[in-house]
Specification:
The chain contains five helices and no strands. The protein is mostly helical. It binds zinc ion (ZN).
Length: about 130
């Protein structure tokens, strides 16, 4: 599919959505690294390998959806760019997926979410990973 523009509507600079600083911050927070120099399939495979958890697919899909929803809320509902709002939405959606997932997947997603918040809280306090 061809679009007239691939520029991120939220950024002042004319950057493509893949290079959007807000999206990059969200991906870093989640522990997902995208190597934009690679082709999409290679980029996906490498990011999955580096993620190191079997919940990569679920986390990546939820992150894409919540980022798109956050952009739409800004464009169509006069919302504001907010990492906190994005994170709240991401956590809410992930917990909904946990409710519908098989018990083994639900346990892994819950564990991943707990470790994500613990890791980022310790990092914010300057204590680093355990
Ligand atoms: Zn942007």
């Amino acid at each position: 599919m061809f679009l007239e523009s691939y520029s991120c509507v939220l950024c002042v600079e004319e950057v493509e959505e893949l290079d959007c600083p807000f999206a990059q911050f969200c991906w870093i927070f989640l522990g997902i690294q995208w190597d934009n120099s690679l082709l999409p399939l290679e980029r996906f495979i490498l990011a999955k390998q580096h993620f190191g958890c079997v919940t990569f697919r679920e986390v990546m899909i939820i992150a894409c959806c919540t980022t798109l929803e956050h952009r739409n809320s800004i464009i169509f509902n006069n919302g504001h760019l907010s990492f906190t709002a994005w994170l709240r939405s991401f956590e809410h959606e992930l917990k909904l997926v946990v409710l519908r997932a098989k018990p083994t997947v639900a346990a892994k997603l819950t564990s991943w979410l707990s470790s994500l918040f613990l890791f980022n809280t310790l990092s914010a306090l300057g204590l680093g990973p355990l």
